[in-house]
Amino acid sequence: MANAALVSCSLNLSSGSKPSSHLVPSASVSLQISRSPFRRILLKGDKRLRKCRTVYAMAVSMGQEAGVQPGSGSDHSSNEAPTPKKVMVIGGDGYCGWATSLHLSNKNYEVAVVDNLVRRSFDHQLGLDSLTPIASIHNRIRRWKSLTGKDIGLYVGDICDFEFLSEAFKSFEPDAVVHFGEQRSAPYSMIDRSRAVYTQYNNVIGTLNALFAIKEFGEDCHLVKLGTMGEYGTPNIDIEEGFITITHNGRTDTLPYPKQASSFYHLSKVHDSHNIAFTCKAWGIRATDLNQGVVYGVKTEETAMHEELSSAYRLWKRRPDPGYLDIRDTVQCIELAIANPAERGEFRVFNQFTEQFSVNELAALVTKAGKKLGLNVRTVYVPNPRVEAEEHYYNAKHMKLAELGLEPHLLSDSLLDSLLNFAVQYRDRVDSRQIMPSVSWRKIGAKPKTVPA
Ligand SMILES: O=c1ccn([C@@H]2O[C@H](COP(=O)(O)OP(=O)(O)O[C@H]3O[C@H](CS(=O)(=O)O)[C@@H](O)[C@H](O)[C@H]3O)[C@@H](O)[C@H]2O)c(=O)[nH]1
């Protein structure tokens, strides 16, 4: 089997607190869709999923009175998008979502977080924690209000529960919805059948519900959906931004770029993209699919304001697609997409990354930076648990966000130093058992996998 390079140093840097394996999937699988084939699968095979399901739909108002006035509303007869003012951030308690919520609030958008907090529940179930301490969502929002005077709304609930999502939509009336709220770990989706089913059910149904909510309650609302560069796979030709023009047997057409995803998680995003593209065509939905690269970094202008506003820590996670970006660019890209909405019926695709690195290049960079800080750093080679070509061509276009004005923060020595310094600061919180890959793409089976304490 091919080998992949990983960097480890005396601190055993972890890529965060992702549920890399084990235990009960989550507490959020909704069984309310009575005729769904997914329901049949769950009822037949997944008693544990049924048992642990808790749909907790609780809308918490945290001082909306001081917020910006609602957006100008929707002119349904026009193709012109209303100036977006109110943004719903689904998955707004997560790594990218929290930083984005703060950034948009700072830019005077009225923001509401929608999240079922399942990411925190994964961590509790698996005995994991973030390297950097993370405050509760309630404390985060209160701290933001006390520092800036700005309100962020909060709706705690599961978007697979359409009733919950409808109520959140009707009460907040968003002009734009940013959707981060998915199970986003490829290794997690490859542990066993139940995790694969959970990932695809949860992600596909959640996105479908968001599309139906827009159609029913705010048809001018712009969907900004987080996809991943992993949807494209690693073709032996240049990767375009969503579409490719092909001449075949003398005829020419511009078609969706082929998708060759390499995990059940990445495939869930491909299915989402197809559903979104179809509803843009059929219902006139406005949508932007952001195929994001690997995000790294801890600090944005806003999260750096107080330790209770801190994001999770992420150096890098291993992925076959070598596009990377700083968390400060993630929040900038989302803002650019919202401020320049898609037309009615338009399905836009932006490739959201700023630099490309191979794993070996990253290993060399981290090794060099660690040595500079006096750390004992080694590069070790471990078997690659994924099924992928070790050497392959990769050249992906990423112009559209730059054209809208993205000013990238590129990886520099000083940024690497600061990331490593974070790890040094929180060295006592490092759980070295979580570093090595523990899920094999080839060994996934139907038998549920459990994990010792
Ligand atoms: O059904 C769900 C699943 C998740 N969540 C919430 O969504 C948030 C996801 O946050 P995260 O920290 O697990 O994920 P994050 O790293 O922010 O990943 C985000 O950014 C990814 C791009 S990338 O960084 O992996 O390239 C996207 O693919 C993911 O969909 C998107 O959640 C969490 O608060 C979680 O509780 C829900 O509300 N409902």
TrEMBL record:
Group of enzyme by EC: hydrolase
Pfam family for this entry, one: Epimerase
Molecular-function GO term, any one: UDPsulfoquinovose synthase activity
CDD domains: SQD1_like_SDR_e
Residue ranges constituting the NAD-dependent epimerase/dehydratase domain according to the UniProt record: 87-351
Family: Belongs to the NAD(P)-dependent epimerase/dehydratase family.
Official protein name in the record: UDP-sulfoquinovose synthase, chloroplastic
Organism, scientific name: Salvia divinorum (Maria pastora)
Organism lineage string: Eukaryota, Viridiplantae, Streptophyta, Embryophyta, Tracheophyta
Gene behind the chain: SQD1
